[in-house]
Amino acid sequence: MPQGEGETVRLRPPRNTLNERAVGWWRAQWLLMTAVPVVPLAVLGALVEPARFWLLLPAAVLAAAGTATAVLFPLWWFRTHRWEVTEDAVYVLTGFFWQEWRIAPMSRIQTVDTVRGPLEQLFRLATVTVTTASAKGAVRIEGLDHQVAADLAERLTRITRDTPGDAT
Q1: What are phi and psi of 66, to 5 degrees?
Q2: Which partner from 53, 129, 130, 135 sits 20 to 30 angstroms from 153, CA to CA?
């Protein structure tokens, strides 16, 4: 990032939150993942009488844990995910206990992609993926309103096109 002599860069939380619909999207994802083991266990428990208790018990435990997680974690994730784009870089902050700050300088961005899976489309959300040469991988901003994501991808494409490449 271009910095004048004597200037320091201060790491601060990015300004933007995700779209509120991301909470519902994460909940739906979690409930679907919970259903994958619970439904077969419950069906087998209903059909196989000698093993009913040993099949329905883990189904009930998994269903309760999955539901509790689907209720609590997405709210927590929503409060801890932040993002921001400036003329110099893309900033993403995720995590609470293990915070991860990702900063992608505009001069290092190689591609900008927008993805909308079936569940994201249902919630009118999208994910913007910013790919750099970093060994850590791409910077992803999930849970954006689909129009905000499209506008962001267009803005990033314009900024990176107008930013000279990093010679280092």
Answers
A1: -65, -40
A2: 135
The secondary structure of the chain, three-state, reads CCCCCCCCCCCCCCCECCCCHHHHHHHHHHHHHHHHHHHHHHHHHHHCHHHHHHHHHHHHHHHHHHHHHHHHHHHHHHHHCEEEECCCEEEEEECCCCCEEEEEEHHHEEEEEEECCHHHHHCCEEEEEEEECCCCCCEEEEEEEHHHHHHHHHHHHHHHHHCCCCCC
Answer whether 101's CB lies under 8 Å from 91's CB: yes
Comparing 89 with 68, which gets the higher pLDDT? Answer: 68
For 49-68, the pLDDT digits (tens) are 999 999 999 999 999 999 99
Q: Measured in whole angstroms, how far is the alpha carbon of residue 101 from the centre of its chain?
A: 13
- Please give the model's pTM, rounded to 2 decimal places: 0.83
- Mean predicted confidence (pLDDT) in 38-59: 96
101 contacts: CB under 8 Å, gap ≥ 6: 11, 91, 92, 93
C-alpha 46 chain-centroid distance:
37
